[in-house]
From TrEMBL:
This is M48 family metallopeptidase. Residues 38-249 form the YgjP-like metallopeptidase domain. It comes from the Bacteria. Pfam families: YgjP-like. Transmembrane segments: none annotated. InterPro entries: UTP_pyrophosphatase-like, YgjP-like_metallopeptidase.
């Protein structure tokens, strides 16, 4: 294993060689607070992007060594995500396609009913979309109806789960506000003021995955970064979070697929 480095402008892009493959990765540097421990973290995204986050003053050699120590793990994670990508095709929004809701699979069925209003509902293992009539805008109409249906379900279920989980988050005062907003690489986020943002695609995952993301973001109200204290706090409210996170990561590409 060797490394190959290159830099274009202010964007740092490098790669390392594992076996006979060059694996590219991006380095994101962040300001380092004196009171916080210096740490280099590595994340492999479901779209097969490898991102390394490091203190802004970290030496390139130290970053390289951190990556090389986890080279095998990076390669295996990429291999797993690539396996998922082979089966993921862009949604066409036609009858017979697979949709997910709360971890279960449903078959999309589209029907025409001139007497009915456009609607979406679940029935007998199917996600049934009714259109008043089929025309050239059929695909766009189905996509819009399905997306809106997911958003409505997400707002309802996320509110229920947040209310259920709040008693565990004893460090949170009051009820945090949250918004449902599509994100390409995050399931959720927490602002400095403690406002939560949750990805509507998360509604496709099992409830325990939804709980993990909500608890993760609630922990950020107390600990704003991924420090050791943050992980200890998360473990205290969800001891098996690693298994749940792994389950969510493994299905991410399918859940996020539109």
């Amino acid at each position: 294993m060797t490394s190959v480095n290159s830099k274009e402008g202010s964007k740092e892009e490098y790669s390392f060689v594992y076996g006979d493959e060059a694996v590219p990765y991006e380095v994101v540097r962040k300001p380092h607070l004196e009171a916080k421990k210096r740490k280099i973290t590595i994340k492999v995204h479901p779209n097969c992007e490898v991102v390394v986050t490091s203190p802004e003053d970290a030496e390139r050699e130290n970053i390289h060594q951190a990556v090389m120590k986890r080279a095998k793990w990076i390669y295996e994670a990429l291999k797993e995500f690539r396996g998922h990508l082979e089966y993921v095709q862009p949604k066409q929004y036609v009858s017979g396609e697979m949709q997910f809701y709360l971890g279960r699979r449903y078959v999309l069925k589209i029907v025409e009913d001139k007497e009915a209003l456009p609607s979406v509902k679940m029935t007998r293992g199917k996600l049934l979309v009714t259109l008043t009539r089929f025309n050239d805008n059929k695909t766009a109409m189905v996509r819009a109806l399905v997306r809106n249906w997911y958003k409505i379900q997400a707002e309802r279920i996320f509110h229920e789960r947040l209310s259920e989980l709040l008693p565990q988050a004893t460090w949170v005062d009051g009820i945090p506000s949250f918004r449902v907003l599509p994100m390409s690489k995050q399931w959720g986020s927490c602002s400095a003021k403690g406002n939560l943002m949750l990805n509507p695609h998360l509604i496709k995952a099992p409830k325990e995955c939804i709980d993990y993301v909500i608890l993760h973001e609630l922990c950020h109200i107390a600990e704003h970064n991924h420090s050791e204290r943050f992980w200890r706090l998360l473990t205290s409210v969800m001891p098996h979070w690693k298994e749940v996170k792994s389950k969510l990561d493994g299905m991410a590409e399918l859940y996020l697929n539109e």
